[in-house]
Write a structure and sequence with these properties.
This protein is an all-alpha fold. It is built from 15 helices and no strands. Helix 1 crosses helix 3 and helix 12 crosses helix 14.
């Protein structure tokens, strides 16, 4: 039973990949994404409704879930190092360095919005953060408040400035030209945008991601997902509280994103979302854990867990597919698909990955990226032949 329940971690991570894809795809498909202007080509009611739903349910939520699970898996890595008789800190520092290098390569060549480099940098912090459970929880709360406060202060500064935020279509037109050009133009654009995005992510998502790392590590130390029965009765309460609170903040954020993207309201709405998004993320986890305990549990877990087990490979492959579809690396479909088609493509890619993940793991123990990162972490190559029991994590 304990073995099954640890599959919950992989299944949750597999679910998180859907949200990550549903957010990242807009950076490829819509040149106006995150530039403070709605795409004038897709300004119809249906187009705005689809974007509203994407912002409501996915944006600012799933990187939190991914970060929480990263922190949880940190404790699994600690246990694996202990079983192997290896020194934990050097091992995790090598892992952090591997993530950092993978992230930089991914950000320069495929997707300038890469998150792996941030995880690599924050992993160095997590390795050295030797705080008690209570101190870690307090630190997480402070970091989440700090994230919201920084953005609120920035919003106030912009609001008081005579010129305001302003809106400029030039960045969108530059991206469109690059993605409709050849592969060299797309590569040059991606490489030029990556350094700026590194700074933006460190400021905007760094504190909240580290907060979720700490919460995840605290949950891992409690072996939360290995003892679901102990708190199963609390899951409906988490839904009852987390869903309305999370949706309230998400609704304001989505409305500001789609109907006032160049106003100061988006700054304050995002600040509020930093505080309420963890509630919605928690409700997602609670709902999935309840689903994992239903009569559909075997099917759901068996579908999601393989994706989560090779989440790093799937994350990188999502960028490969999107680059081939939307940029000069391939079909140049940037700004060619309406929002409804983009969302349909999200599910098409996701379910294709679900099938491929199950197929791959019947023949291999690790995904290609996981195998490489494991080699960097352990300082030796691992056997890729499938085993009858789950490998040690």
């Amino acid at each position: 039973m304990n073995q099954y329940r640890l599959l919950n971690v992989d299944a949750l991570r597999g679910f998180a990949l859907l949200g990550i894809l549903a957010v990242n795809i807009w950076a490829f498909a819509d040149p106006y994404f995150a530039v403070g202007i709605n795409n004038p080509r897709y300004a119809g009611a249906l187009d705005l409704a689809v974007r509203f739903v994407a912002a409501l349910l996915f944006e600012t939520k799933f990187y939190l879930l991914f970060s929480f699970l990263f922190g949880y898996s940190f404790t699994l890595q600690m246990a694996a190092a202990e079983r192997a008789g290896a020194a934990f800190r050097p091992r995790m520092q090598r892992r952090a360095f591997g993530l950092l290098v993978l992230g930089v390569l991914h950000g320069c060549f495929l997707f300038y919005g890469d998150i792996l480099h941030l995880y690599g940098l924050l992993s160095f912090v997590l390795v050295t953060w030797a705080a008690s459970q209570r101190a870690a929880l307090r630190g997480a709360a402070v970091l989440l408040l700090l994230s919201a406060l920084m953005l609120a202060v920035l919003g106030a500064v912009v609001m008081l400035a005579p010129e305001g935020m302003g809106a400029d279509a030039e960045p969108a037109l530059a991206k469109l030209a690059a993605f409709h050009g050849d592969w060299r133009a797309s590569l040059a654009y991606t490489m030029s945008e990556f350094p700026t995005t590194v700074a933006l992510l460190l400021f905007a998502q760094g504190p909240s991601a580290l907060a979720m790392f700490l919460l995840g590590r605290a949950a891992g130390r409690m072996q939360l997902f290995a003892h679901v029965d102990a708190f199963r009765h609390l899951l409906p309460r988490v839904l009852k509280v987390g869903l309305p609170v999370g949706l309230a903040g998400a609704t304001l954020y989505a409305a500001a994103s789609e109907y006032d993207p160049d106003g100061t309201m988006i700054m304050f709405a995002t600040a509020l979302s930093y505080l309420t998004a963890p509630f919605l993320t928690a409700s997602y986890v609670a709902g999935l854990l309840m689903l994992f305990d239903s009569r559909f549990s075997a099917r759901v877990v068996s579908a999601l867990a393989p994706m989560g087990k090779i989440a790093l490979t799937n994350y990188l492959m999502q960028s490969v597919v999107m680059a081939l579809l939307f940029t000069g690396y391939g079909l140049r479909l940037c700004n060619e698909l309406p929002p409804l088609a983009v969302m349909a493509l999200v599910f098409a890619i996701y379910f294709a990955q679900m099938t491929l993940s199950a197929w791959w793991l019947k023949r291999h123990t690790y995904g290609p990226a996981e195998w490489l990162l494991r080699a960097v972490t352990n300082g030796r190559w691992s056997d890729q032949r499938p085993v009858t029991q789950p490998p040690s994590r």
